[in-house]
């Protein structure tokens, strides 16, 4: 039996078959795209929620070196520590670093299990500490941190070193330094010197407490007066001060806002003594340490915040030069708080651009004659 089709019928059947094939292909592509999208979303979610179970000691050592170098440079510990793409809190990092020192002491190169259930200790306090600490003592400190963290779900407020309390922040700093100096996969330094004061910026969230001064009642009025170079009563300065401090609810917030504005808008320029004064420095957006101080003082006084000049001789960290320098103290919460806008690494209440342990203070003034 044979089937005969005319040309018109053949064309119709061919078109129908082609249409079916196209539809099948489209459905297959849609299914594939949906599957691909589902897999991508799943992977994305896994990346967001995945917490490493263990971390290699090599990775912990690299992180410890970063923590030490950063904190030594900025005089402030980081808020978190990145290890192999995951951010750990400081207490979690301290636990990992302690675990690595503990295992290194026993010549154990295995990975460290992460403990996520650790909080930062509240109100840690310490003493001044100066002691050459042996590897055995670092091992004992690390063991204590591990056990304390497991039991209390918190890092310890301090550890004892030679009968002195070394504060939590100092422990993170020096433990990081010690681990970063280890060699090979299991080696530990035999000794490392710990030398830190309780007023260190490391222990005080970056604040240079040693450059603060106590407030004596009845001495603030002279530090609110307008002067030829700190023109706090000038309408333009008053207007700018109001704009900068808009939304600030306390003197502390106002003082911080003013400092941040100056350090971001009045670029440091090297020369001696006053060249511009506050008004011109604001207009030119530049000035040396003296003129930057004029700007901070003018804006602070215009905002009702007592501010004064401090003159001294300082050794600067990067250049190594020892030269005359001017910075500011603002009166906040009955303390004269240091502010120095001459270097962008400095911050409100904190100085890292010059050696705070060797400077010589010449005087404190309401106005300058140079």
From TrEMBL:
What Pfam families does the annotation carry? Transglut_core
> What SMART domains does the record tag this protein with?
TGc
Q: Where is the Transglutaminase-like domain?
A: 281-343
Q: Which PANTHER family match?
A: BLR5614 PROTEIN-RELATED, CONSERVED INTEGRAL MEMBRANE PROTEIN
Protein name (database record): Transglutaminase-like superfamily protein
Organism whose genome encodes this protein: Methanobrevibacter filiformis
**Lineage, uppermost ranks:** Archaea, Methanobacteriati, Methanobacteriota, Methanomada group, Methanobacteria
